[in-house]
Each structure stands twice: as structure tokens, then as C-alpha cells.
């Protein structure tokens, strides 16, 4: 790598055209200027100037070196300008959340991007553990998870909550929801069911359901595509538990029965980023948008 001080001395010499005046401009001695030029020539392996008495001419290599010096100066100025310019409505914002939350968030976030075209939203759908892993590696800068992560690695704050829903086929609309009925209907399993179902049963306010051993439930189906989980439920093949946003997005609402629990079941949502990571101002815009969406959703 060429010494940037020697390079700047060479650039100044070319622009001033005189060794003494270059020394004055750089607050150096004239021998110091000559020494920088000789060191730069040694570093690149070519003569850069040809002395003609008190004057000099650039060699072909000298002209190339001067062009390079101009580019370095311009690139440095551009970088410093970019470092000092932190636009709240410009740049890439990389986020991660669950599939159910993505259904709720993505359309409003696209509306925000439409309002500010230079604000680019990249939304990754991932489970909690993957979101946290991606925050550590820098694959994403901001995540929403359903448990408060390790405070030594992450900075988190409560941003809202999501409602969990117990969903059965519409044929059970008038049925009393008891453990026996759930055993009879069977579970449509999915990647988050082992988390959602015990949580729902524990918090729904029904002591009998709270005692249900979910491990003994008959599983009548499994699907890992969020948009398809409610399809077997709508066809009368089983029940499941999902966030309200996922239920609301299902097209055939008339084929579902969403149980009204004695107590609403809410799961806290945490907005998370890597600890000690200072995010650009554009993420303030995203913070505000997410808070508004989740408070109204």
C-alpha cells in the first residue's frame, strides 16, 4: 500500500509546480519534499518526475500516479461526506421476524417505502433463534422475537404483543371446548405449534385446558407453510393455534371457528438489536412505523 503522506506530497508538487512552494504549502523543508518523492518512487519502482534544473516534468508513470492521487483524494472526500450524512429516509433496512408477524408488517412497510423510495426494506422471515443468530452475524440489523434475549448480547424493548388464537373447524362453533373435544378433533401440527399450544392452554383462563397434556394429543396433520396451516382445519381435519394475524389472512374465514377464550392470550413482542451496535437514523423511521403498526394491529 502506498504511503498516503508521500502520495499527497507528490500530488501537491504536481499542482504547485515547484519544490520550495510545495514545502511551504505543506509546512515542510524542501529536502523533506524531495525525500517523500524519492520514497514514493522506490515504493512503486518507477521514476515519477524528470528534473530539468529547477523545473521538472512528469514521466508517463508520474502522470498515472497523479491520476491515482486525484482518485484517492476524491474517494476520501466522498467517504467523509457519506459518513457525515445519515438520512432517516434513505438506505437499506434489514429486519427479521416470524411469518405471522410478516403478514401484519410487510404491507405497511411497503407503504412506508412507497412514501420514501430511497428507504429499502428487506424483511426476513425466521423463527426466534434464527433472528437472534442473524443479528449476531450482521445478516440483519433489527429483529422482533417473542422472548427477551440475553441482555449481554442484545438490547431489547417491548414493542407490542400478538394475540394467539385456538382455531377449530366451523362445525364446532357451538361446541364447549374441553380437553376431550381437542383429543377427538386432533392437532394440525406446524413448526411453532409446540410453543403456541401449551402457552395458549396455560393462559386462556380454563383450568381444565391448562391441565391438558399436549404430548398425548393425536396429530392429524403437519404443514410448515404458514399460508397453508389453516387449510386442513377448514376442511374439518383438526385444530391448531396461530397468531391472530395469520388467522386473519386466511381466505376462507367461514370455514373456521376461532374460540373466544375466558382470558385473551397475548404474547409479548420484543424489538431487538445487537448490543452496542449503533443503528443509522433510518432505523428510527422503522422503529416508529413498527410501533404504530403493532399498536393498531
Automatic annotation (TrEMBL):
Cited SUPFAM superfamilies: Periplasmic binding protein-like II, Winged helix' DNA-binding domain
Family as reported in the entry's similarity comment: Belongs to the LysR transcriptional regulatory family.
Origin: domain of life: Bacteria
Keyword Nucleotide-binding: no
Organism: Marinomonas communis
Keyword DNA-binding found: yes
Protein name, per record: LysR family transcriptional regulator
Listed InterPro entries: LysR_HTH_N (IPR000847), LysR_subst-bd (IPR005119), WH-like_DNA-bd_sf (IPR036388), WH_DNA-bd_sf (IPR036390)
Keywords: DNA-binding, Transcription, Transcription regulation
Gene3D superfamilies reported in the protein's UniProt record: Periplasmic binding protein-like II (3.40.190.10), Winged helix-like DNA-binding domain superfamily/Winged helix DNA-binding domain (1.10.10.10)
Gene Ontology molecular functions: DNA-binding transcription factor activity; transcription cis-regulatory region binding
Span of domain HTH lysR-type: 2-59
Amino acid at each position: 500500500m502506498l504511503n498516503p503522506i508521500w502520495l499527497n506530497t507528490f500530488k501537491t508538487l504536481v499542482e504547485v509546480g515547484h519544490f520550495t512552494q510545495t514545502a511551504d504549502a505543506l509546512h515542510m523543508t524542501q529536502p523533506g519534499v524531495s525525500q517523500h518523492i524519492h520514497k514514493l518512487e522506490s515504493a512503486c519502482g518507477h521514476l515519477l518526475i524528470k528534473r530539468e534544473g529547477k523545473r521538472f516534468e512528469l514521466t508517463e508513470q508520474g502522470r498515472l500516479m497523479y491520476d491515482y492521487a486525484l482518485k484517492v483524494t476524491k474517494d476520501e472526500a466522498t467517504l467523509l461526506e457519506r459518513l457525515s450524512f445519515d438520512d432517516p429516509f434513505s438506505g437499506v433496512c434489514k429486519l427479521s421476524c416470524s411469518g405471522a408477524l410478516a403478514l401484519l408488517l410487510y404491507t405497511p412497510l411497503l407503504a412506508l417505502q412507497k412514501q420514501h423510495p430511497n428507504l429499502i426494506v428487506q424483511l426476513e422471515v425466521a423463527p426466534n433463534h434464527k433472528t437472534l443468530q442473524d443479528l449476531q452475524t450482521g445478516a440483519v440489523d433489527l429483529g422482533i422475537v417473542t422472548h427477551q434475549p440475553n441482555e449481554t448480547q442484545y438490547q431489547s424493548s417491548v414493542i407490542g404483543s400478538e394475540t394467539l388464537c385456538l382455531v377449530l373447524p366451523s362445525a364446532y362453533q357451538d361446541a364447549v371446548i374441553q380437553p376431550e373435544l381437542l383429543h377427538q378433533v386432533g392437532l394440525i401440527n406446524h413448526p411453532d405449534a409446540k410453543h403456541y399450544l401449551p402457552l395458549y392452554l396455560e393462559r386462556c383462563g380454563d383450568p381444565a385446558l391448562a391441565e391438558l397434556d399436549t404430548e398425548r394429543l393425536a396429530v392429524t396433520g403437519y404443514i410448515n407453510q404458514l399460508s397453508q396451516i389453516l387449510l386442513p382445519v377448514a376442511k374439518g381435519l383438526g385444530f391448531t393455534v396461530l397468531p391472530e394475524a395469520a388467522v386473519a389472512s386466511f381466505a376462507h374465514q367461514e370455514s373456521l371457528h376461532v374460540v373466544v377464550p375466558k382470558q385473551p392470550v397475548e404474547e409479548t413482542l420484543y424489538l431487538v438489536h445487537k448490543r452496542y451496535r449503533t443503528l443509522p437514523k433510518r432505523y428510527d423511521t422503522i422503529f416508529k412505523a413498527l410501533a404504530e403498526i403493532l399498536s393498531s394491529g
